[in-house]
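2.7 Reproducibility. Because tokenized structures are sensitive to small changes in the input, we list the exact sequence used for Alpha/beta hydrolase, including any N-terminal residues retained from the expression construct. No trimming or masking was applied before prediction.
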Amino acid sequence: MQRSTREHIEGVKQFLRQMGSVQPMSVEEARSQQAAALASLPRLTETIVHPVHAAGMRAEWVSTPNVSANEPGVVLYMHGGAFMTGTCDTHRDLAARIAQASGKRVLVFEYRLAPEHLFPAANEDCIAAYRWLLQEGVQPENIVFGGESVGGYLALATLLSLRDAGEPLPAAAFLLSPHTDFIHYDSETYESNVEADPLGSRDTSRQCAKLYTGQEVSVDPLLYPVGAELKGLPPLLVHAGGDEVLLGECQRLVQRAQAAGVDAEIEVWEHMWCAFQLMAGIMPEGVESIEQIGQFVQHHLCIGGESST
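Resulting structure tokens (single pass, no recycling of outputs):
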């Protein structure tokens, strides 16, 4: 598949740096800024949306014409946005692309955002959304979790919470540039990739945690899933950018999961940054990444004992 030229990559990075240099004056301005930036990107045509309320939250079933209405397999998607931004609207196109690639419906929902709602509000809402799916009659083996950035963190933390509570786990999970450490921030790529990453830094990760917890320093182990006992988790697929500061902790997550006997793998995308899949409309790497995610979802959603592919 065609890849972006270095000139195109550097142009997009420069745009992202300029966007990041404009500091919003309020939470609402930050939310509007993100929504406007994502709305400016090319979107899939023929996206099919069915609004619902999931566990009291605004939510959407997103699909495309190639997705069968009778398909039992689904993706439960947990959006990113530094715990502060993100809606069904901002992530509808990404959800549609995942639906198109996987042939499965994708449920996107609006968990409570910070700073109005502090830790563990978003974590609780993600668990509630999963339980809502089960109450709707979707079987655990017919569900795959997904999420990008803090949404990847939330997907991983939800898996750990469900496992520790003895509840049934989904079939698998894909994590796109997941945050896995809101306590130590000691990954070496916070140093080695700081100049190449147009979006992230150790300071932005700390600010993200402070926004969600309301504290300068956090100690709750749920905020440090990379340090948790990972045994018993379902298969994990991690996609990360080669230029992002979170790369090291993504690699550490996969290494520790494999050591715990989990079927885990990581794909590193050269010259990419955190959650580049959101820019699939202009980045062919995003398209290719989403195609791989679709294959992963198809492989792990086994209906009636047979692969749904």
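The beta strands are 48-54, 57-63, 74-78, 105-109, 143-148, 172-176, 236-241, 264-269, 302-303, 306-307.
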